[in-house]
Structure formats: structure tokens, C-alpha cells
Amino acid sequence: MNFWIAIGATALGCYAVKLAGLLVPAGVLERPVVRRLAALLPVALLAALTAQQTFADGHALVLDARAAGLGAAAAALVLRAPFLVVVGVAVLVTAGLRAVTG
To answer: What's the chain's Rg over C-alpha atoms?
Structure first.
């Protein structure tokens, strides 16, 4: 029964957030500060998600093959490689290190 309470609470919370977004006046959304924040927020969230998935294992911080793959991807980006090449480099480095280290 607690499972359904959690689902209901989540659904109500999502609806409340959506409703709050619709109730914001248009003048507020057109301010330059709000526009800059709206443009930067997805980048910040994606960076945080990438860092969490790369350096966390449960409740511990780790430095393993995922970090090396991220570093290789960053190097490929600095060299202005196409997106698919960046992803491929990250996959190959991560998989290669995991195969070597077990």
C-alpha cells in the first residue's frame, strides 16, 4: 500500500510543479536574467549527472575506468572530434581498461 501512496504523491508533486510553471507571468520569463538561467540550467544538470554517474558508486567516490573514459572524451572534444567519435573514444577507453583490470 505504501507503494501506491508514493506513486500518488509523486504524481501530485509533478502536477503541482507543472501548474506552478504555468502560473508564472510572461513578464517574469522574458527577463534577461531568467533567460540566461534557463539557457544554462540544462548544461549544469547534465554536468552534475555526468559527474555523479562517473565518480560515484553507491555512497562512495571512486576513480575507475569510467573516469578515464570521461577524460578521453574530454580530450577528443578539445581536439574538435565529431560527436560520434567522442562517444566511441570514451567507450573504447572505458571498455579497454575494464577488460585489462577485470
So the answer is: 20
Contact 97, 72 (CB under 8 A): no
> Could you say which DSSP state residue 60 is in?
E
**Cα–Cα dist 76/93, whole Å:** 12
Nearest C-alpha neighbor of 67 from the set 52, 77, 82, 80: 52
Sole residue written with cell 553507491: 58
Alpha helices in the chain (DSSP H): 2-23, 26-29, 32-55, 65-78, 83-101
User: In Å, how far from its chain's centre is CA 97?
Assistant: 23
Bridge partners of residue 57, in order along the sequence: 60
Express each pLDDT in 85-100 by its tens digit. Answer: 999 999 999 999 999 9
pLDDT per position as a tens digit, 20-74: 989 989 888 899 999 999 899 999 999 999 999 999 988 899 999 999 999 999 9
